Every structure is written in C-alpha cells, then in structure tokens.
Amino acid sequence: MTLADIKAAARADAFSRRKVAFANRKDSDAARLLTALTGHAGKVLAGYMPMRTEIDCLPAMAAHKGAVGVPVILGSGRPLKFRGWSPEAVMVPGTFGARVPESGDWLVPEVLIVPLLSFDRRGFRLGYGGGFYDRTLEGLRARGPVTAIGFAFAAQEVDEVPIEATDQPLDLIVTEAETIAPGA
What we know:
By secondary structure, this protein is an alpha/beta fold. It contains 4 helices and 12 strands. The longest helix has 21 residues.
C-alpha cells in the first residue's frame, strides 16, 4: 500500500468520524479557541469559512482584536493568499465552494486557524490532500514567526497521522475538550 493509499483511507475514516462529531456539536465548541487567541490580540489572524462538517471558527474570528483574513485559492500547487474579512464582508463562491470576500486587502497572517480532517498529538494534521496549508505555512515560516492552530472536534484525534516530508506541523491544537501543545 502506498502513502497515497494510506492517506486516502485515513481521509475516508476521518470524514466519517467528523460527520458524527459535527452532528453532536454544541454552540460552545469555539469557547476554547477564543481563549487560545487571547494572547494573539493585535496580530493578523487567518481563519476559514467553515464548509460541510468543519468546526465553526467564525465566532472566534469575529471576536478577534486585530485584522482577520480568510484563505483564497489562487491555483493548484500554489500557496494560499488571505483576503481581509469581517462579519459584514460581501462573500462570493470561491474555489472548491469555499466563500471568499468579494474585495478587500490582502493580508499576511501571523496566526492561522487551520481546518483539518484528523490530527495527532505530535502536531500533525491530515488535510484534504491539496497541500495548500503545507505550502502556505512553509512560505510564511520562512519569512518569520507564525502560529498554526488546528481547530477540530476531539473525535478527530488519531494515534498517528500518516505524514510526508512536506507536511507542516501545527503549533497548537484546540478542540472542544482541550488545548494541546505538541512537544510541550
């Protein structure tokens, strides 16, 4: 079995587990994320527009004291760019169905809230397979300090995410049950 096969099987399992967790979600699921972001007030934050069964980070984005952006996919094999967002922003459909601001300034985030399918306590995440966040984090980290926060349901934790050399680790993982600092 190849690494691609292993990741494909892991994604199928992760989608199933996340679907169940999403069905059992509570309005308070983002409370820990708000707490994790308090030390980052004033920094440029990048969140995401939740799709399908992703845990909702919008309350934390709206409460952030500083500029907030959301990812815009510019093409396959390219890193993400981040356009300024506010709760009042006019949103339009973007690539893969994710909503993006119709207009706004481009931002360079210092803190990213990263969606995921599964995570492990080493700080690795399994994404959707496009490599967008890995390329983006690699480029941002080459420029300076950046904090990547995985936001997920506790049920998305696995013993070990299958990884390859290009996978970028998370600095923090926030679930509705706990905050995990890999390597701490």
